């Protein structure tokens, strides 16, 4: 193992002042890639008009930072929310009368509710007609700045007024969530809901203006940047189908080894956006590592050592599928990367033992001829996923990741340097 350094990415990028600055704080996405990591990379390695690929793009942080530096980008993700969030984040703030817009939405005559058998289990029945009018207004709009402007506020309010526990990774009804909804529904809840909707629309406008200010600060025009967004796609499959594409950099934060259920976490949002139960179920079945993935060569002694220590068949299958899926896709894509790869990973635990994923990735790509320049180790400051003292599946003390690792790999030149 070559150079390892402790860093705080939040302090290494002066340009992006916080993890929630501008559109980076638009939507609460689990295990979000903090923008300072990508900014750190772009400041030190990029030039305008380079091409960047993020094959596990999540909420789209890589592309939104690359845009600030005048780089073209391509982003893929299994979660269809990627395309929605990218459309919102990259638009110019529209000029609207927010209070008038909210009144139009509240008085819209046609309701739209998800085709979801469990809808009334997750919502108080009396809130559904008003939410239905909001979403009826949204779904009746053609693609437009107004439709983009209201979608994140509607998603937030549809979560807030549900019985879903917002601190948990999957849909989960809890006493804490029930108390939250009961408090929101007390008194003049309709006026409260209208006021919250207006506030959230103003927040989106402010976030868009802040991001546009960042663009102006760097003298960048988003029209000069090309963006390719592929949402609702399976990266494991797509990586083997893409041909004659080349990127200068690959920058990604792959799914965690176990905390990876982003479709299940976004299930509520996807229902309101119009996805059916069958469509959501089909996407969830493609999440790693539960799906079946063909075995691929993993050139890592650390991988083999850990694999040999896992006795339980279900955990062994989870472990194998994760590396066969993620490393398999990254290996295929690495052949089309001209310069560097930046892999941001955490040491997720199996039976309370942290798996050194960064070392496995480093050993594998070094064996394939890549040069390991450095691994930067960053402390996790904030976490949005639910944390428990004990892991309910194992009964063992819950060991969540304290650090994450940025593995920096460079393609060797013809002289092997």
Kindly describe this structure:
The chain is an alpha/beta fold and 417 residues long. It has helices spanning 9-12, 35-45, 61-68, 81-89, 98-106, 119-122, 128-140, 145-160, 175-184, 189-217, 235-238, 262-265, 267-273, 277-284, 301-309, 313-334, 357-367; strands at residues 4-7, 51-54, 72-77, 227-231, 247-252, 337-346, 349-350, 353-354, 370-379, 403-411. The strands form 2 sheets. The protein has an 8-stranded mixed sheet, sandwiched between helices. It is globular and about 70 Å long. Residues 383-399 have low confidence and may be disordered.
Summarize the structure.
With 417 residues, the protein is an alpha/beta fold.
The class by helix and strand makeup works out as: alpha/beta
End-to-end separation in angstroms reads 17 Å
Would you count the extended β strands for me? 10
Summarize the amount of helix as a percent range: 40-55%
- Series of secondary-structure elements, N-terminal to C-terminal: EHHEHEHHHHHHHEHEHHHHHEEEHEE
Largest sheet: 8 strands, mixed
Oligomer kind: single chain
Q: Report strand order across the widest sheet.
A: 1-9-10-6-5-2-3-4
Number of helical segments with 4 or more residues: 17
Average pLDDT level = 90
**Low-pLDDT ranges:** 383-399
Strand percentage: 5-15%
Quick one: overall form? Answer: globular
Task: From the alpha carbons, calculate the radius of gyration and give it in angstroms.
Answer: 22 Å
């Amino acid at each position: 193992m070559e150079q390892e350094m402790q860093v705080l990415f939040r302090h290494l990028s002066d340009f992006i002042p916080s993890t929630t600055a501008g559109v980076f704080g638009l939507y609460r996405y689990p295990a979000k890639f903090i923008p300072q990591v990508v900014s750190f990379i772009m400041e030190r390695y990029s030039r305008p008009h380079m091409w960047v690929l993020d094959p596990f793009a999540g909420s789209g942080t890589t592309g939104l930072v690359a845009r600030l530096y005048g780089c073209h980008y391509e982003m893929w993700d299994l979660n269809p929310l990627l395309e929605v969030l990218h459309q919102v984040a990259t638009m110019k703030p529209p000029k609207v009368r927010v209070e008038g817009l909210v009144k139009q939405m509240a008085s819209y005559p046609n309701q739209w509710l998800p085709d979801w058998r469990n809808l009334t289990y997750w919502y108080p029945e009396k809130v559904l007609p008003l939410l239905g009018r909001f979403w009826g207004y949204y779904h009746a709009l053609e693609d437009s700045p107004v439709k983009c402007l209201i979608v994140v506020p509607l998603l937030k309010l549809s979560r807030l007024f549900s019985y879903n526990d917002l601190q948990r990774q999957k849909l989960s009804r809890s006493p804490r969530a029930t108390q939250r909804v009961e408090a929101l529904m007390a008194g003049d809840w309709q006026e409260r809901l209208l006021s919250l909707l207006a506030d959230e629309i103003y927040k989106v406008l402010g976030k868009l203006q802040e991001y546009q200010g960042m663009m102006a600060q760097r003298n960048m025009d988003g029209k000069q940047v090309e963006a390719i967004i592929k949402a609702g796609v399976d990266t494991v499959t797509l990586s083997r189908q893409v041909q004659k594409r080349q990127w200068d950099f690959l920058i990604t934060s792959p799914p965690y080894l176990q905390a990876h259920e982003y479709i299940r976490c976004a299930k509520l949002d996807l229902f309101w956006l119009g996805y059916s139960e069958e469509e959501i179920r089909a996407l969830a079945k493609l999440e790693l590592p539960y799906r079946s993935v063909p075995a691929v060569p993993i050139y890592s002694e650390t991988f083999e050592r850990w694999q040999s220590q896992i006795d339980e068949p279900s955990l062994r299958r989870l472990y194998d599928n994760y590396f066969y899926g993620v490393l398999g896709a990254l290996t295929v894509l690495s052949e089309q990367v001209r310069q560097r790869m930046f892999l941001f990973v955490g040491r997720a635990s199996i039976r309370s033992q942290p798996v050194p994923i960064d070392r496995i990735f480093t050993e594998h790509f070094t064996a394939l001829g890549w040069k390991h320049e450095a691994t930067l180790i960053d402390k996790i400051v904030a976490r949005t996923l639910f944390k428990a003292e004990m892991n309910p599946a194992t009964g063992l003390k819950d060991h969540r990741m304290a650090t994450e690792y940025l593995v920096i790999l460079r393609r060797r030149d013809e002289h092997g340097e």
